[in-house]
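Today's session is about reading a structure prediction critically. Students often jump straight to the picture, but the first step is always the sequence itself: look for stretches that repeat, for charged clusters, for runs of hydrophobic residues. Only then move on to the predicted structure, which in these notes is written as discrete structure tokens rather than atom positions. Here is the chain we will use throughout the hour.
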Amino acid sequence: MHRGDACPDGTPGFPNGTTNGAKWYPLVGGMQDYNYIWGNCVEITLELSCCKYPLRQELPSYWTQNKKSLLVYIAQVHRGVRGLIMDTSGNLVSRATLKVKGRDVTFKSSKRGEYWRLLLPGTYTLGGFDFLCQ
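Below is the predicted structure for this chain, in token form.
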């Protein structure tokens, strides 16, 4: 798939090794939508092959072929902004609502007062404070 080749079933190729999943097969109201809006997390579907149900013995080769890329992807969790919400007494605040200025979607801190938001490099405002993501 990373070469952009079409699948044997005639499905169009993948320019630059990527595809818009909605063009490959439509899915409305899936877990990606739900988790981003309501769960404060990003969910993806990795398509590693044209075959939807590879044989069990083929799975180790998919890991070997994609290990480096997957580990680099996992490291992206450190992009954006993250921290703790505390009240004036230093107590953690659970379920505090936050919003990045200029974005439509709000998000909440966890039950332990933690918050995080993946953001591309740039300057943002969160809770009246400006910060830079690199």
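Discussion point for the tutorial: The domain at 79-133 is CATH 2.60.40.1120 (Immunoglobulin-like).
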